[in-house]
Amino acid sequence: MELETAALVAPVTSLEFIQDSFLLTGEGPVLSVYTLQPHPDACASVNVLQHYRIHGIRPRPVKKHGQSSTTEPNLFDLAVVGGKAVRLVRLHLDLQDEHQLYFEVLGPLMKLQDWVLDVRWLSGDKQQLLCVAVAHSSVVLLDSVTGNALIQRSCTEGCLLYSALLLVHESWADTVIVGGTVFNQLVLWKPGGGDESSGSEQRASVERRLLGHSGVIFSITYLQEKGYLASASDDRSVRVWGVGTLGGPGGICGDMNPTCLQVLYGHHARVFSVHLSLGKVFSAGEDGACLMWDWTGGGRVVRTLKGHRAGGVRALAVSERTGDGERWVATGGADGGVRLWRVDDSEESVQEAVTEKLTDLKFPDHGLPKVVCIAAAEDENTSWSRSKIEVCTDRGVVCQYSDGKWTILWQGTAEFQSYCVMETVTVKVKDSSTKAHLCAVGNLTGSIQVFTTSHPQSGHLLTGGAGKIHSLLWHKEKEHVYLLASSAEGIVYRWCIEVTLNEDCLLVLNINPFPSFLLPACAKRWLTAAVCLQEELWVCGDRRGSLLLFQDQMNGKETEDENGLVKKGSTKVCDVILQPISYLFGVHGKQGVTSVYAYQGLLYSTGRDGCVRVFRVCATPSKKLESSVGHSVESREQLQLEVLRVQRACKGMEWLERIMILDPEIPLEDENECETEKLDKWCFRDGEQKVREARFVIVGFHAVHFVVWDPVRQERLLAVPCGGGHRSWSLWPSQTGVWPGYGALVFIKQGAVLALQPPDEALCWAGKAGRTGGLGLREGIHGKGIGCVCRLGRIEAEGGLVEREGRHWEVVVTGGEDTSLTVLAVHLVSGNIKVLSVITDHISSVRTVTAVTHPEGGSKQSLSALLVSAGGRAQIQCYRLSVVWDRQRLAPSCQVIQVAQHRLDGQWEKRRNRHKTVKMDPETRYMSMAVVDVRTDCVLLALSCSDGAVRLFSVSEVKCQIELLWETFYHQRCVLSVATCSLEDDKGNRYLLLFSAATDGKIAAWQLTEALFSSTDTTRTELVPCLDFPAHQSGINSLAVWTEKLGQEEGGCLVTVASGGDDGQLTVSTVQVQVGGGGGLSQTAPCSNQLRLHLCSQSCIPLAHAAPVTALKLLSPGLVVSTSSDQRVYLWRVDSSSISQSAALCCHVADAAGLAVWQGEDAEGSPGCELQDKKDTDMTDQTVRGEDLASTAPCERGWVLVCGQGFQLLRVRNR
């Protein structure tokens, strides 16, 4: 059998631009090329360095015979380096069709005796010579054709180098090297100095020495036009040096006394990469940020580029500046992602929002400002420079800020001078292209003044009861708006307002009252948020934290005029008071709901409890009723609200205000759809999954800052020091609730109106550059290590391109040290990875994950899974995942529904007499998990715990509950792994066995029949293991169990337990199980000692791996897969008497920690892969094209997915 790579996600360690139109990336040993015009797209990939990571790509254009010097070349020779290897690859470009790109490997892998730091082509030699810098202060002259080292010259400074920069010209004698030593110094010397015939005996002396860094130096770059050198260091700094001319004819070593021109501090962690250009420095580091510095202007940060998840930026590339003064910046992250930005060298202003200087708009003495609004903030056609700021004071005065000055718009009567609330909105004038800005002001006596800001004197006075107007809300439709006023005793008054033009072209307000809403009785009984799904369905949020659903059944059904038009202003309609048909009381806590937003069939609510709740409107099946005349009448469907999942913001960010959609990938539905289709869009029936959750950012307050937070990348997109919550604010822009990547904030602080950027100033770079996160060329997965992985299943694609590209996608879930779960879809032919969803509910690292999966309705285009994850802080999370093929996006999509959660310390708080017991350790971790049994009403799970316990849980999706059934502390030390198996006797009785392994190297076997059925309170059941035997000298990290039924003469069955431990040993233990009298799980009171277990034999391979075995999985009976931190994946043939290795592979995933294996037939019939691990002889003269993905191969046996620092999907084939 053999293993080959089907997909790979690893840290991106090298990037290089070609012609501002192509980008080369190095991910593990895989070299890839992307075209950037007209839109970024992957074109071709090839494995060039076998088991080494690519750390450098050096292109050289190849001129064809007779080609003009002005013609752009379409051939590039690439020197690719990494580890101790160098390889040459030729890139073929088709300038007419950028997608017709392919790689050609020119020769065998050239292996050196030292780590390669840099490589350069010697331009003057006719033969292909490479100058290679290696880690032990040496430079090698390499013949790229034969792979032989012609000359090797060392430096008298014989210390280890962390980085090196070669400056070459035409010959070896012109070469100059700048090395970053382990002693935090930069040393400059000439390897080509002296007589070449002396060989490597002569050592070159140090010509220049640059001192100043307090940490090792990771990256060096040189700007020849200015004679400047830049270095990036472990001390979090970037230094710019004036060194003069380096290299060139004769190997010039620059100024005799080089000086440090600038020290740039701005990164919060180590700086890995630096690039120097005219007037600008680009640096990237472990903090995940790429900083653009204006170092000539005092070393200020001009722009911060963020877009990667945790783990930092490992690679940086900056293209040459084009005619428009812009250039590409590319970053490669530890999360395996590649992001692109378009930047302008003319950018000068610092854009770090937390240090942004706020502008006081000098509000005049018209009273204390209480409410601030930006007129037309939701209008996407209104620019920031044309926006107007409106403020309402405690004296009932509405002022407007425009063109740098304040003017009074409206001044209320005495009733408005002690208390007032204000809201504004922009609405389209009916039968016109113009728009009008409406303002509503409410007071203590129930009066509401509504007027247009262009004609405030011609307003309308509305009455909203006899008490205080607590809040005003606008809801915008196409050509009209709804005004909701929350008054005393929980009554919410509604009006529909249309703006028209009269004969004199003046704005006229047509106001029609609608039935009022009645909020549930509570202490804080007023409305805080509302959204209309259609004219008869409203979802609201109140100050008590409840979500309410109203259905206006009276709307439009009372009276009609002679033309058949509805008279919505009739007395009969406005006197009706509607009560909620469904509500979730206090779901957002006692601090209230702050917003409700509807987008693409789902609803999103925020509150001051620090949570975003994703929910929907569900329709229960309609029932047939008997009418008074005896006919069967179908009643209306009953609607209710259902919360799908809860998304928390960052720690300490409790006051959330709203969400904004970050990446609207699905186009909006057709606006001309009929009313029935509109209702179906928002009302879900049983078994329906029509939409997927959108990517959003969270807007709120974190301590004293106003923050826009990305919950997926766990980073701030905007932060303004405003003083914290409890203030009126307005953010521009907010068109259709989409976050464009920039914003201007206006807020009130200590009686002053402050703005992040005044409207009379032009927008900063963000207004031109788009989203903060840049353009995702390749999406990242986990920035930190992936600790566990689980396969959900396979879905088939539908669409026009699937026949050519392949139709099968594997859906997997990964959990990592970054406390997140990621749902992924892997295309089996191309190896493409799509992130379907990211779940961030865990408060500590995710260590284990499992799933119970079944197809939805038997369809191959969808599947549903009950996912359970566990990890640090003794936390368990349960979700229902529904994965379907999205025909609009031609990609898989996933909807996450949160089912239940459980924490051991939460259970301790509920116990009686808990003061008499010792509280559980809050640092308890769940180490592994296994499914014990799947039942109609629940799923039984066994978990191993770091506090020495083995615990059994019941997960009920119907009750939305996770319940602890049983626990034992038999091992008295950390339990590392658990595994289960099911046995059946001749009578059909079923028995369950649980195997647990701890850090003492022993394995215990438990019969779970009694623990499950002996009593209703199983938490007190004392259970003794049926068998306990040693298997390793130290901790056992993983178990794999399978059964084999014996013949009738022998009776019983054999259970084989394979285990891998910290000692690197693979042990196979065979246990014979004899079934005694009595029944199995079907009995309610089974007899004791039903099963008798006996250890028959043990065999082992002491050094199966060179490091601890971290994961072990069963691919098929007798075929086991193991992996370790030694980056090896082995297939083992196992039987009762022997263990033999069937296949081996050196994987490209560092710190391998988890495995997922499954059997599968050939995915497409011709399953080849462009990322194949081959011998050196196989790679010679090999050509890999982007479209050549299929090849004839033997039938596959299964799949192996290895995770750690990234993940790698492997095919298992018969030879």
How is the secondary structure organized here?
Layout: E1 2-9, E2 12-18, E3 22-27, E4 30-35, E5 41-47, E6 56-61, E7 75-82, E8 85-92, E9 102-105, E10 110-111, E11 116-121, E12 129-134, E13 138-143, E14 149-154, E15 161-167, E16 176-181, E17 186-189, E18 206-210, E19 217-223, E20 228-233, E21 237-242, E22 246-247, E23 252-253, E24 259-265, E25 271-277, E26 280-285, E27 289-294, E28 300-306, E29 313-318, E30 326-333, E31 338-344, E32 359-360, E33 369-375, E34 388-393, E35 397-402, E36 405-411, E37 421-428, E38 435-442, E39 447-452, E40 460-463, E41 471-476, E42 480-486, E43 491-501, E44 507-518, E45 527-534, E46 537-542, E47 547-551, H1 571-574, E48 577-578, E49 582-584, E50 593-599, E51 602-607, E52 611-619, E53 624-626, E54 632-634, E55 639-648, E56 655-661, H2 675-682, E57 683-684, E58 696-702, E59 705-710, E60 715-721, E61 729-732, E62 744-749, E63 752-755, H3 766-769, E64 775-778, E65 786-796, H4 802-805, E66 808-816, E67 821-827, E68 833-839, E69 846-855, E70 862-871, E71 875-886, E72 891-903, H5 904-910, E73 926-934, E74 939-945, E75 950-956, ...
Parallel strand pairs: 44-48, 52-57
Antiparallel strand pairs: 1-91, 2-3, 3-4, 4-5, 6-7, 7-8, 8-9, 8-10, 9-90, 11-12, 12-13, 13-14, 15-16, 16-17, 17-18, 19-20, 20-21, 21-24, 22-23, 25-26, 26-27, 27-28, 29-30, 30-31, 31-64, 32-63, 33-34, 34-35, 35-36, 37-38, 38-39, 39-40, 41-42, 42-43, 43-44, 45-46, 46-47, 47-49, 50-51, 51-52, ...
Family: Belongs to the WD repeat WDR6 family.
Pfam families: WD40
Subunit structure: Interacts with FTSJ1; the interaction is direct, and required for 2'-O-methylation of position 34 in substrate tRNAs. Interacts with IRS4. Interacts with STK11/LKB1.
